[in-house]
Please model this.
Amino acid sequence: AALASGLDAESREALEEILIEADVGVAATQRILDRLEKADAVGEDAIHNALRDSLLEVLGRAREEPEIPGGRPRVILLVGVNGVGKTTTLAKLAARYKAEGMRVMMAAADTFRAAAAEQLEVWAERVGVDLVRQRSGADPAAVAYDALESARARGVDVLLVDTAGRLHTKHNLMEELKKIRRVLDKCEPGTPDEVLLILDATTGQNALSQARLFKEAVEPTGLVIAKLDGTAKAGIVLAIREELGLDVRFVGLGEGVGDLERFAPEAFVDALLS
Amino acid sequence: DLGEKLNRSFKGLLGRGKLSEKNIESGLREIRRSLLEADVHYKVAKDFIQVVKERSVGQEVLGNLRPGQQVVRIVHEELVRLMGSAFTDISRSRSAPTVILLVGLQGSGKTTFAAKLARRFQKSGQQPLLVAGDTARPAAVEQLKILGSEIDVRVFEKGSGADPVEVAAEGVREARRLNFPVVIVDSRGRLHVDGELMEELRKTRDAIAPQETLLVVDGMSGQDAARVARSFADDLGIDGVVLTKLDGDARGGAALSVRAVSGKPIKFVSVGEKVDQLEPFHPDRMASRILG
Ligand SMILES: Nc1nc2c(ncn2[C@@H]2O[C@H](COP(=O)(O)OP(=O)(O)OP(=O)(O)O)[C@@H](O)[C@H]2O)c(=O)[nH]1
Ligand SMILES: Nc1nc2c(ncn2[C@@H]2O[C@H](COP(=O)(O)OP(=O)(O)OP(=O)(O)O)[C@@H](O)[C@H]2O)c(=O)[nH]1
Ligand SMILES: [Mg+2]
Ligand SMILES: [Mg+2]
Model:
């Protein structure tokens, strides 16, 4: 069968190395290459194109941004494990929406980590938007609630809520996150409109475990892959899409406020296979 | 469990007898798969399997150990041997202060580790000075100041926006002037492929002549960890590695990759956000974790 499809053992191994080194993962790589063998492409170019197509198929068509009922702020909650880029991504999103003419507000609901609110204060000032914060150690859900009330009162279009980094395996921290989500919904039914799970492009197979547990806890509506300006390829998003149906919305390409782009599946796959 | 899986793939071998090259192939594939799932780099895993193969072919199957467990024992031993058989502490300077420079990618855990390392020295009776060498990230100086104040460790800083090379140099001078036995210099996160920032780091290193340059690596890192370690080792020079965020469920295969490509020892493991959640690196514990 391998000969008929033109994918000999050596070619398969070469592709396996590319995919594994791109963090696609062993199981996903095997599934992808098994499918490729069945595709019966012959010749290097045909095989490469067939592979490219099959990866694009996994990533699927980007879904539309949810339609927000008018007359209330669109609430976006940012979540993820420690140090992945949540706060910086929030600042980038704020700048983007502000540039689109929207009235934007930030909420510093990371009340735990040293200087988390101060970090967001600097960004709020740089981007030119309001920030709701409380003192360190305050209840993050209270900050979120406060911010949404304030956003509603001021006719804000987009409220971005930052949260503390937390490992998905820490039960009490995941419960805290669920509470933040519940409290937002209580304050304004239907919110948060978006829950963005931020993943670090340099993370390996653990990103799948992160996605699973964050999905279970707070139902993310999309992913952001930060730090894709490095050399990591974030191939794990294929397994995440296949297993959990989560799409990548944006990618972070640097530390500056403008370094955020909408996810472009073709560019992503080309970089992965390069 | 890897031992069980290997036993199944060796099920032809129940009594005494040598493990032949043929019956070991499937076992080796199982081990390689496990290492890759644990985020060990593809090439590092390949080289490692070759070493295991050479030790296992012709290996006597011990009477009371099933062949699968025997191979697992070999794998475990080789992992420990590769990662260093004993804890390697910080090198000390013969004339105070010992200068430690922390480097690594964005968000890897450097600033948090700076405080943890400071606390460790403090507990052993050596008062450290922390230097806020990240003058770029919003509120990074503030972050280190807060962490320092929480453990009563002095932080030398010149605020955000100052020249990081100057801050590092002045901080070390201050440590010398005030007779601190240890000075720990935090630096901003940077990409190994950012030429400008790697040059800044070389300038910093030249200005302060650290006894220890520690690469701080996120324990959840995937295949890229090998490349990052290689770049930092080649373009800057490092003396050791710290692995962070191992309080999660990441298998931590990056530990093997980083050690294999840099040849440098992993010295500490950070296992939580609190300042006392720091452990000296135990190769045998890491080996078990990687094998899952
Ligand atoms: N190169 C690069 N660096 C990034 C990107 N996004 C964030 N960073 C950097 O990554 C580091 C961590 O970013 P933060 O925004 O503080 O991450 P966080 O998830 O909020 O961290 P915690 O709140 O501590 O969990 C900072 O140094 C950022 O500048 C990116 O897209 N590219
Ligand atoms: N769970 C856990 N979190 C950690 C650990 N070490 C650091 N963190 C968290 O990881 C996040 C990033 O830590 P920092 O110390 O700010 O990382 P950094 O390398 O200094 O980041 P940059 O300066 O932006 O490059 C923070 O939320 C820390 O609290 C650890 O061992 N376990
Ligand atoms: Mg943050
Ligand atoms: Mg830092």
About this structure: DSSP finds eleven helices and eight strands in chain A. The mean pLDDT of chain A is 95. The two ends of chain A are 27 Å apart (CA to CA). The pocket of guanosine-5'-triphosphate (ligand 2) is lined by residues A 82-83, 113, 165, 167; B 104, 106-112, 134, 137, 140, 188-189, 244-245, 247, 270-273 (CB under 6 Å).
